[in-house]
User: Fold this.
Amino acid sequence: MVMNGVYASMIRPLKPGIYAPIPSFFLPESEDLDIPSFENHVVRVATAGVGPLLAGSMGEAIHLSHEERVTLIKTARKVLDDSGLVNVPVIAGIGAGSTRESIDLANEAAAAGADYTIAIASGYFAGALSGNKKALKAFWEEVSSKSPIPVMIYNYPGASGGINLDSDLITELAIECPNICGVKLTCGDVGKLTRVAATVSDPTFSSLHPRKNKNAPFLVLGGFSDFLLPSAYSNAHGAITGLANVAPYAIVKLFELCQASMADPSLLPEAQRLQGIVGRADATIAKASISGTKYLLQKLYGYGGHPRRPLPPIEPAAAEALWEHTHTQDLVRLEQEFSGEVR
Assistant:
């Protein structure tokens, strides 16, 4: 919502929990956006309690035009509202080659209805950037200061030419940039997560370093589901995880159980059991990347399709092995248990 050129405060707070980087679905021949499948999936995960993140790595942001990103944001907002999910926030990826383009994408995302954005440093010039703390810090400082809506840091060395932010830099950005609302750690570094969470989860942090928008606290989120339990005990805030596309109810249940076990230790053994199932599945399915996740969605829910070229589809033999893998089947059974859907 824009008032006199200024975006009004969000009515959809950013809360601890589980978020999913939503795939972008494409029609088989034209590779145009498959909007019905996208709508179906956004509502499916949001109904399970999972927040949608659009145009991230899983969403093949690098394969999307600006116009397509805007279309996905507008579509997600409308279908959520039409489904009665009006309080579910939309996070939009603004990864791009330059700081300037990331800022442009942030403005476009806000105008299209996104509540939050997430920014990754481009890996194209990683040789010059990866060891340059000043340049990396300046990227998130400038993007967050010029974005009309809060910005999350996305630390994913695998998608940014090996650029890997350390906990000191992330903590500095959290302290100094009031429009930064969190970090996604797809580096999988539990020690880093623990160090950052120790700062931002301190009771004094919010008063000493208030956010620009009171609905946007600094959240420390893992990029996988396989360390949700230790994350909870490190005072982190959940995860943005591709596995929540495949098994949203199971991942939400695990998160809730992890949180509850801190108040009721009798729940810890069950949390550990679920974490084992989810952790094994996360490692196995992540190896199959975007095409594997899309295959599993096709198998389970009737939509998924292929990535955009040149990213190849999963090979038939690998797809069959992925589906039949014990780790996948254990997760499927867990999802059926918590969703109430039996196949």
The first strand starts at residue 2 and ends at 3. Residues 11-247 form a domain with the TIM Barrel fold (CATH 3.20.20.70). The mean pLDDT is 95. Strands lie at 2-3, 6-7, 17-21, 51-54, 91-93, 116-119, 151-155, 180-185, 219-222, 238-240.
